[in-house]
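Researcher: Next sequence.
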Amino acid sequence: MTRTIGVISGKGGVGKTTIVANLGAALAHRFKKDVTIVDCNLTASHLSLLLGMHYHPVTLNHVLRREKHINEAIYDHPSGMKIIPASLQLKDLIKTDISKLNRRLKKLKGKTEIIFLDSSPGLGKEAVAAIKASDEILFVTKPDIMSVSDVIRGKEFIGKIKKEPMGIVLNMVTRGGHELTQKEVEIMTELPVIAIIPHDKNVLKSLAKKIPVVLHKPRSSASKELRKLAGFIIGEKEIGFWDKLIRFLKT
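Model: Next structure:
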């Protein structure tokens, strides 16, 4: 059975696309899952750029216009995950109807284990289409009052259309006194915080290298938490070095 997880945020700049890329890479590379990530942010398509994909002749735009089959828009990443990029060209926005997203994605059902939809921020047409095409919703936010208040609006919206909230990922956390705490976020949103990703300079370095941080700097603090989040999503705990050693000695 294919799970479709919409990754959304109330505002831009909270690291949503980075989370999607790293979850896809971690699940494919570390947990050996069949994962497809989809760039649903047609007007600001950054997912492929983040992964160093500058040339992709067939995109989600072509699929939405019924010019190409969705299988033709799938590209392999070295991590093992698959990517469906959106076009980087302005002209490809013409006659591209994002409301057809759910219908087109049904062609992937049963062909991949997990689909992550990288939504546009807010609750505009593109974000709503991604939410409606999802089975579960993962919120990404920074621990500040403005970002978290947008999660509250997002939760209210998905409740009206009966979508299942998975929880909140607090991203770029510095543990500074100016930030909301996990408890405060959970009280405000009435949603569980399922991951806290620390502010880590290695993430910025990985973005410059166009390699997910879980691959570029696997021992970094952000990478460790991202892998924990990936394991949580599929209900598996990451096996560490000592666990592997104990298993080896037992056998």
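Model: The CA atoms of residues 170 and 196 lie 5 Å apart. The chain has one domain: 3-250.
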